[in-house]
Write a structure and sequence with these properties.
2-enoyl-CoA Hydratase, Chain A, domain 1; 2 domains; seven-stranded mixed β-sheet; 12 helices; about 15% strand
Length: about 325
């Protein structure tokens, strides 16, 4: 038995052997390409510490971020037909749905929940871009209608957080029909006198932008979010002009009046709670006290100026008005 081969060499190899490192410990920022440690990134709400780029987050993380103590209750959404047109491209649409459901653990691209935000009851409907690009099909339309009905039932504001590429092409005209349905759902909330706020995240495009996403009482956008209908390349090819820098980004849209405010993700919950509090309780928190007005000032305002005291024949009065 050779002790160098059987004992010393394994010890030396163990010292220099490469250890298995999980692949998800470090992530690269898509904007500045900086390497970010996963724990630091999660603590910063998936916002790059170097350039401030807002990465996409799933609806569960979004709900935990918005509700008090991260506590909320989801509702079961109405079931939609899985493949109404029996659509098939490179894959069957039914197979694509099963893959997305197994990947995300959700039946479709929307999650509806209710809870409290600074003690105020609120209903939130958040999209999952990881589920077929957050596309809007029948199930998403049913989810938004259910969220509107729940908001009216609970007398609570409705907050919608879209992250979508638009209508779902595999459902054809049935997906386009969800655009007017979601508009009717928004009108239900507004007719009940409840606030409807939209938080625009990256990306919000297509039929989602052309329907409920641009009907909010207030539009809040995350920094750098892409918001628009058609893609920038399609627009450039159509109008044959070069688009300005930052076109379809949240900051550009706020400068041109399509977005009310652009908020950092860490300030989103505080901004929403203050906004909803103002919309739900517009009356001042303290008693309104009337300011006393001096009697002399009231009498002085009641007496017309000398020019107005002219006689009927147009002549000025003979002397100055007597002092009171």
């Amino acid at each position: 038995m050779n002790w160098l081969t059987n004992f010393v060499r394994p010890k030396i190899r163990a010292l220099y052997a490469k250890k298995d490192v999980p692949d998800n410990l470090w992530l690269k920022c898509p904007n500045c390409e900086a390497m970010l440690f996963h724990r630091d990134l999660e603590e910063n709400l998936r916002v790059c510490q170097h350039c401030g780029f807002h990465m996409r987050i799933d609806p569960v993380r979004r709900m935990q971020m918005l509700f008090d103590g991260g506590e909320y209750q989801t509702i079961e959404l109405p079931k939609a037909p899985p493949d109404p047109l029996r659509f098939r491209d490179q894959k069957r649409y039914a197979d694509r749905l099963k893959e997305a459901q197994s990947k995300t653990g959700r039946p479709d691209a929307i999650l509806v929940a209710h809870g409290r935000m600074d003690g105020m009851p609120v209903v939130v409907a958040a999209f999952d871009f990881g589920f077929m690009g957050g596309s809007m099909g029948i199930a998403v339309g049913e989810g938004l209608v259910a969220a509107a009905r729940l908001a009216v039932l609970q007398d609570a504001p409705l907050v919608v957080v879209p992250a979508s590429g638009g209508a779902r092409m595999q459902e054809g005209i049935l997906s386009l029909m969800q655009m007017p349905r979601t508009v009717i759902a928004v009108e239900m909330v507004k007719e009940a006198g409840l606030p409807y706020v939209v938080v625009l995240t990256d990306p919000t495009t297509g039929g989602v932008t052309a329907s409920f996403a641009m009907l909010g009482d207030v539009h809040i956008a995350e920094r750098g979010a892409q918001i628009g209908f058609a893609g920038a390349r399609v627009i450039e090819d159509t109008i044959r002009e070069t688009l300005p820098e930052g076109f379809q980004r949240a900051e550009y849209l706020m400068e041109h009046g399509m977005v009310d405010m652009v908020v950092h993700r860490k300030d989103l919950r505080r901004t929403l709670s203050k906004l909803l509090d103002l919309l739900r309780r517009p009356a001042p928190v303290a008693e309104v006290v009337a300011m006393p007005i001096a009697v002399a000032e009231v009498e002085a305002e009641a007496v017309p100026p000398p020019a107005a005291a002219a006689s009927k024949d147009g002549r000025e009065p003979a002397g100055e008005p007597a002092e009171r």
